[in-house]
């Protein structure tokens, strides 16, 4: 089994065998996702540990410009999914806590991500389904950080971890984004998260 497939499945023996067979640089043909990314996305704690020990690049982002996960790092996707243990692993391995993704969309769910048509637009706090063409939603400048998406999705433990690791509490999407100027505090819905962000100096 190739490393990517083993990592995706959470197959610990398969990952070990693939690493030993020097297949550590295999990527997904379609989505250009690293094994570490897909393991982080799915919360496979042991596999993430294996890959990090084998020297996986903790900050390598997806790079296929035709996929809606363009620019997502392992830390970003783990934060998005609320995988607190994986977030801790990645931070200890030196993940860039303030590295933003390349898109400005929060997505409906992993089952719909694969056809790249259905997204959730949370602009102005309203959840609205849109049907879009994949080629029409690629902005060009800095977007959402791990702290931003964790705050928006209500992952309090992850927010706490990221703040402790030095995340920029007021870093907002840049010019050209639907989310321009909106801080993590401005999109946080849960009172616990709002309190943490405010205590860290967050501005609305």
Automatic annotation (TrEMBL):
InterPro entries hit by this protein: Ankyrin_rpt (IPR002110), Ankyrin_rpt-contain_sf (IPR036770)
PROSITE patterns xref list: ANK_REP_REGION (PS50297), ANK_REPEAT (PS50088)
Annotated Gene3D superfamilies: Ankyrin repeat-containing domain
ANK repeat placement: 31-63, 70-102, 142-174
Keyword terms, alphabetized: ANK repeat, Repeat
Record bears the keyword Repeat: yes
Pfam families documented for this protein: Ank (PF00023), Ank_2 (PF12796)
Record SUPFAM superfamilies: Ankyrin repeat
Top-rank taxon, per record: Eukaryota
Protein name: Ankyrin repeat domain-containing protein
């Amino acid at each position: 089994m190739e490393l990517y497939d083993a990592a995706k499945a959470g197959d610990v023996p398969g990952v070990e065998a693939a690493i030993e067979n020097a297949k550590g640089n295999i990527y997904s043909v379609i989505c250009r996702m690293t094994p570490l990314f897909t393991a982080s996305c799915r919360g496979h704690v042991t596999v993430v540990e294996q890959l990090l020990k084998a020297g996986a690049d903790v900050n390598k982002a997806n790079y296929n410009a035709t996929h809606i996960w363009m620019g997502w790092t392992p830390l970003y996707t783990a934060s998005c999914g609320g995988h607190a243990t994986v977030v801790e692993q990645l931070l200890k391995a030196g993940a860039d806590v303030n590295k933003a993704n390349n898109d400005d969309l929060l997505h409906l769910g992993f089952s719909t991500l694969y056809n790249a048509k259905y997204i959730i637009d949370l602009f102005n706090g309203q959840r609205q389904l849109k049907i879009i063409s994949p080629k029409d939603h690629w902005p060009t400048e800095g977007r959402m950080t791990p702290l931003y998406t964790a705050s928006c999705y209500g992952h309090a433990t992850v927010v706490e971890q990221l703040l402790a690791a030095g995340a920029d509490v007021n870093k907002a999407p840049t010019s050209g984004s639907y989310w321009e100027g909106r801080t993590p505090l401005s999109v946080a819905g849960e009172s616990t998260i709002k309190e943490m962000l405010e205590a860290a100096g967050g501005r609305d």
